[in-house]
Design a protein that fits this description.
It contains five helices and four strands; from the N terminus they run E-H-E-H-E-E-H-H-H. The chain is α/β, with parallel strands linked by helices. Strands 1-2-4-3 form a four-stranded mixed beta sheet. Helix 1 packs parallel to helix 4. It starts with a strand and ends in a 5-residue tail after the last helix.
Length: 142
Amino acid sequence: MFKFTIIDCHRQLSSKIINLFHEANKEISKLLTTQYVYDVSIVNDDEIRAINYRYRKIDKPTDVLSFAFHDNQGIKPILLGEIFINFQQVKWQAQDTYEQEITLLFIHGVLHLLGYNHDNLKKAKLMQNLQNNILKQLNFVA
C-alpha cells in the first residue's frame, strides 16, 4: 500500500476528490508490493509556474509535476517523491468533470513517481493503458 499526504493549502479539494485519490491509490498499489510514501500538493498557477521554472527552467504553468526521490535503478527509498497538481489548470482543461481530470492527473503523477513515462510512443501507450485501467476501476469512462 502506498501512503500519501495531501497538502491543500487553498482548501480546493472536496471530500469526493480526496476519496477518489484514496481509491486510485489502492488501484495503483496493486502494481507493486513494496510500501511507499509520497506527497501530493494542490497548488495554483503562480505556485506551479515558480516550481516549474526553478526545477525545469520552463517559465509557464502546467497541470501536474512529479519529482521522484529515486533514480529508477531498482533502489527505491520509502519516500517516493512529490506531486504538484495545479487546481486552476484542472478546472480549465477538464473535458468531463474536474473530479475525473484531477484524478487522472493524480494517477499520472504517481505513475511518474514509479518510473513510468511517455518519452516515446511505446512507453506512452503503456502509461496511458495503466491510467485508463485505473480510471475504469474508479467507474470513470477512459
